[in-house]
Amino acid sequence: MIVLDSLLMFLIAYSTGFLYYGLYRNITARFQRRYGPPIWQSFFDSIKFFTKEESTSHGWMFYLGPIIMMTGAIMTLLFIPFFSNDESFVGLSKYGNLFVVLYLLVLGPLGNALGVGTAGNPFGAMGITRGLSRLFAMELPFYIAVIAIMSLSGSSDIATISASQTMLNAVAYPLLFIGALFSFIGMMGQAPFDVVGAPVEVYSGPATEFSGKFLALLMSQSAIFTFAKLVLMVHLFLGGADGFLELLGKTFVLFLFVIAFGSMYGRFKTAQSIDFLLKVPTTIAVLGLILATWS
Amino acid sequence: MDLSIFGLSDIILSLKVTHLANFFASLIAFSSFIVMFIGRNYKLTKSFYALFILLTASLFLIVYAADYLLFFIGWEVMSISSYFLLSFSLSKEALHKYIIFAMASALSIFIAILILYSGTHSFLYADARESFARLSDIKGIVFVVLMLFGIFVKLGTIGFHYWLVDAYEESHDFFTPYLSAVLSKMGIYALIILVTQVVELSYTLAIIGVMTSIIATFKAIQEDSAKRLLAYSSIAQLGYIVTVLGVADGMAGALYHSLIHTLVKLLLFINIAGIIYVTGRSKFSQLGGLIYKTPQSFVLLLIGIITLAGMPPLGGFASKFMIYTSLLDAKYLLILSAVMFSSASAFLYVYKLIYGIYLGHPTNKKLESIKEVPLSFLIPQYILALILILIGTFPALIVPQLNAILSESHLHTIAFRDYATLISAFGEYNGLVLISAFGVIFGIVLLFLLSTHSKVKEVKDRFDVAYCGEEPNEATHLHYGYSMGKELKRVGFLNLIYKNSVKPFYDFIASQTVNFADIFKKIYTGNLTNNFNIAVVFAIILLWWSIK
To answer: Model pTM?
Structure first.
């Protein structure tokens, strides 16, 4: 039962993730007065990469890097239930909790960082350095908001948090939501916090050495991971969902906001983004936490 | 023990076997066993081993003492025997730092104990709460401050860490794992005794602990030497334990993390010792690219850093989970945020540790002919790694033992269902499901990737990397990541941590002490006639005083 459930979750996240990615490329193209690629272009690209005749590898740790990344993305997906009150599409979520998910979110990137390091490409190491330096600053406002939400709903179970919202958390505790949104934009790799990949500037960051089927695996995990993160955010702040339509609607609105935000702003340097994240969103989140838990 | 024959009729000394003492004693015994494996690689003298045994004996005295006097005797023997152990390898300056701080710590604990004694005229832990209640407010505060000073020096809490990092870096590779894994835990033990038997310190401890862990984490990120990095990491990890001891129900998390920290620091320091043994280097800027030369060491270090970072599914997550949930339960929300912030920052230095040594490029020709480290280094690491995986899979395995300690101290026990499920006040998780899900998904993805018909071309030449169309060579600076974290200095807010140091403060104290000593030097010149005159004057004063 769990196996079937997990498989369905995987397939839905996989296809939705690629759909969203296609829409992302189209929408940003319109922002820049271009026509984008066909919606399923990224999906076809990933299939094509899987069937490339040759992929370059730098030893077994390099081989395992993208696999750990994919495993991290699927684990994250399976430990977040799709719906607030439903017996199906829960995956493994009842064996974990929000703390587990917070750590699973960084498991994949860290695993891949080992593969990147093994390749010995200085551009890859540069991307990892930037990513890790930015990571703690990015997580802080999110952690503060999540801690406040956990304390308010008296549980670290995602479905319980999601179902316990009489008024949406985003409306009831707007400061917490705003603080967490800044982090979330960073987690989604959008501007102004997109210095990790930073195309053009550092060749392409952590993904530099990966080609062929490794690159395809990285693309697929990105699709799944994006969807999982969106679902998590919807559960925490937007009251979760009770059906597929609601889930897709809410995740898409959130996604649209994130990519619109990303298209509007330029890129922070690493030090700038750390400085900004530690000052503005953190202050907002701390204020939100104090206001929300005052009594 | 009755001391009346010595004329000390009202002093009772006693040893007592408690679950708490057993817990720490087993950490000591296990760590001594583990470090003995690597001893045979070094030509250590008999006196080194004799002192090591004396040190271990003093540690047992500390944990089994049931009164503060025996505790102090153990503490003093521990400080002095580790001084002699450190003197085998430490530079003069580091050694002076160590002994000055160790003696200051011991003396301040001694004064604190005497103040406590003035309450009920008993050294026993059992009477300690009563003694403390009878102290005046001022005396109470002085007691707490002196006691905490003594403990914090041993823990290396930020501000008092001045001796620790140098001592860890320069201590013998055989002794460093023991220093970090066991000696620092004595500070935790003393703190637990203080918190459970004498007085609760809630926010004081929580704030000091969390400041310590944040500052030490960022200091660790900047270090170029593996041992210094791990020394700061030790300070930071102990900071978490201090923080959680500020919460009434934090004992479980503190004990759990003590166990994990002992295991993981043994593993990491032994791993580094092995690398130093085969390469003779300990700086990231001089290492690099060892992964395929010493693959077993790499995997073992990886297990170590996964645990240190608190990643599921290994043991480190279980203790972090206990710490987080007890802080959450006590509504220490901002402190919890700061702890999690520090924990997330730790990813940077754990990655730097593994990258600097094993990944990237070899910075030196000699590194390309390195062989795997000797088995005597690997065996203890395998034992530790297996235990960490076991604890990760069955995080509730030690809950019955923890519950025995908790109920002995009249604290809430941890709920217990099966060994795989760790239950806390704020939710639960299943370690077995976590680790098997990871294994199954990893296996499926691996099989899938192996089954695609795309061939894999292994790159033999390490300069064959994508490099913007250019070809790097020997002269190109490719081991880029060893200086990871340098750009943090550009963040004004974080640079405060790097700009400020305790060195000027201690230099000031030192110069003032020297000035003060100069006054005495003017009287006590060392001239024999002069000395005789001083002695006569003193004798006359003493005589006059005793007659009066």
So the answer is: 0.93
